[in-house]
Amino acid sequence: MKIISIAILLMTLFTSSSCAGNSSKKEIQQQNQNGKKVLVAYFSRTGENYAVGNIKKGNTHIIAEMIAKETNGKLFEMKTVKPYPQDYHACTDVAKQEKESNARPPLQADIAAEDYDVIFIGFPNWWGDMPMAVYSFIEKHDWKGKTVIPFCTHEGSGLSGTEKSLKASCKGANILQGLAIKGSVAQNSQEHTRKSVSSWIKKINF
After folding, report:
1. Backbone angles phi, psi at 13, to 5 degrees
2. pLDDT in tens, 113-156
3. For the whole model, what pTM was predicted?
4. Fewer CB within 10 A of the end CB, N or C, for the chain?
């Protein structure tokens, strides 16, 4: 009887130890390889888009998910209180008006960017700039000491001057080299896009 009791006790201890080990492993996996907390904050748009027609998942959203998977980052989508028009041309008109008036459209929700070490900021290139909704997000936070990395989707404009804009807006942050991928490529060539994302992340020594 004593032998059976000892065996049960040993099995219980072994099981508890294994569970604790698995729990610790899970906690470690929630950080990236460098032990940094990563946020992937992005603005993206569905509906009618240039060169890809009507889409259910935004071009930038696709890239954001790939980055989050590569870096073990937390995804956060910037959503405006007032949705942008589904029609492409109507949306570009609104985007142009917002840029000209330097608008800051209110967002539905926010996240504490200050709790993260590295923040990827993603957006479509609208009129050679970030959508004004992205500025709404940026201006809510303190970026001192943070690493900020831009990524964007476009159809020929690349990042334009957005890296400089981020440097001016994210005071005290270290801005790393950004990534620009065509929206049509993100939608229609996702394996190629995934390789580009992976290569870029290695290139910036992340």
Report:
1. -65, -40
2. 999 999 999 999 999 999 999 999 999 999 999 999 999 999 99
3. 0.85
4. N
Burial of residue 199 (number of CB atoms within 10 Å: 0-12, 13-18, 19+): exposed
DSSP sequence for 140-183: TS--TT-EEEEEEEESS-TTTTHHHHHHHHSTT-EEPP-EEEEH
Q: Which helix (H) or strand (E) holds 74?
A: strand 74-77
Q: Among all chains, which residue has been given the structure tokens 């840029």?
A: 99
CA distance linking residue 55 with residue 65, whole number of Å: 16
Does 3.40.50.920 match the CATH number of domain 31-203? no
Which residue has 């029609």 as its token pair? 87
CB 135 within 8 A of CB 169: yes
Dihedral sign for Cα atoms in the order 146, 147, 152, 158: positive
10 vs 7: CA distance, rounded Å: 5
DSSP bridge partners of 149: 120
Instruction: Let me know: does 188 contact 155? Beta carbons within 8 Å.
Output: no
